[in-house]
Amino acid sequence: MTIYLVNMALLVGWGMLLIRHEIPSRRAWFVSFATIQWIVLSGFRDVTVGADTAQYKALFLQSQTLPLGAFTDRFFEIVFTESEDPGFYLFQRLIQYVITDYQVYLVLIAMIFMIPLGYFIYKYSSEPLISFLLFSVLFYEFFAVTGLRQTVATALVVLVGYHFVRARKLGWFLLLVCIAMTIHKSSLIFVPFYFLANKQLTKAYLMTMFGVIVGLFVFRNPFFDLLVQVSGYDTYSAMDGAGAVNFSLMLLSVLFVALWRKEQILANNPSAIHFFNALLLAACLLPLTFLNPSMMRLVQYFSLFLLLMIPEIVGTFERRERLVVYYSAVMLLGLLFIREAPVYSFFW
After folding, report:
1. Where does the chain cross the membrane (predicted)?
2. CA–CA gap between residue 154 and residue 281 (Å, rounded)
């Protein structure tokens, strides 16, 4: 926990220092420092940090003894008929021709996710400090210290794919999705975002989306069964007592506040329409988390846009109010992080 607190303190320190001084390219400097910090924390963690780190090490060591053909034979058959994700294991085996140490491999995975994340925040966030603090509180445990397959898939379809969504380059976006689906099939869930990203927030559209959210909550069981069948992850089953209540309330609260201030948000940043539509899609998937917590994997693809939406909300306040909201948000995120931060240790 101490290491995480040091990381948070450094983020706030860099942010305050660069805000208070007219340093050239201060935005780029801050994002660079923050990105490097997270690469270090993610890549240099011990195998005991993160629920799946030790398991992925066992798979990494096991695959070193297998020939390349073991990962290329039946590749496409596995992609379309089985629950395995052969693209990830092929990628891992190819990397092992250069990297044979698991710790170096973790650093590489951290770079594959954190560098696109840093650029995503640098390019599209109005308040990079708040965005990195939000990542530290809401998403670090999954993307920084737990999942490897979905971490890589998310880097491709969301953090890189979003640039093609904005540029309206469907071919390149679908190519990334096709690659990502071999790494983690759940990445297919991000495809509808391309077609809804620019959807205007008319009253009819919002009423329809909220009707869909309510309908999917009522009929979440058949929707859950359909997605499990399509994805091929037939090991998932409904669980009594499941439900990401706190996260669901937080996401819905942010969405409602954003809709309340949508005129100001869109006046400041017309591209924020993408953030609204991403969070509406995230809300549609929230009912699934009340059947199986693993369904949060689907929500994560869209909820990353919280990193961009919350700073936009902060920006709608008047200058004096904005400072109060800004520092209050920083303090609140810090307190939430202190409450939730798990134990951490470096590999040495």
Report:
1. 102-122, 129-152, 172-197, 204-223, 243-260, 272-292, 298-317, 324-347
2. 16
- Nearest alpha-carbon partner for 161 in 149, 151, 182, 176: 176
Kindly indicate the confidence band of residue 260, based on its pLDDT and cuts at 50, 70 and 90: very high
**74 three-state secondary structure:** coil
How many CA atoms within 13 Å lie on the side-chain side of 29? 13
Q: Which residue has the tokens 């995120």?
A: 333
In 3D space, the residue among 132, 119, 124 whose CA is nearest the CA of residue 268 turns out to be: 124
Using alpha carbons, select from 156, 169, 155 the residue that is nearest to residue 197: 169
Give Cα separations from 260 to 55, 197, 249, 257 (angstroms): 45, 19, 16, 5
For residues 232, 236, 237 and 239, what is the CA-based torsion angle, rounded to 10 degrees? -160
**Sequence-distant (≥ 6) Cβ neighbours of residue 211 within 8 angstroms:** none
**Using an 8 Å Cβ cutoff, are 66 and 138 in contact?**
no
Instruction: For residue 346, list its beta bridge partners.
Output: 45
- pLDDT number for residue 240: 46
CA 155 to chain centre: 8
Give the closest residue to 150 by CA, choosing from 121, 107, 109.
109
> What residue ranges in 205-328 does DSSP mark as E strands?
none
In this predicted structure, what is the pLDDT of residue 234? 53
Cα–Cα distance for residue pair 63/333, rounded to 1 Å: 40
The model's pTM:
0.90
pLDDT digits (tens, 9 = 90+) for 37-95: 999 999 999 888 887 889 999 999 999 888 888 888 888 878 777 767 889 999 999 99
Cα–Cα distance measured from residue 180 to residue 112, given in angstroms and rounded to the nearest whole number: 13
**Average pLDDT for 156-166:** 97
C-alpha span between 94 and 191 (Å, rounded) = 27
Residues near 116 by beta carbon (within 8 Å), at least 6 away in sequence: 155, 159, 160
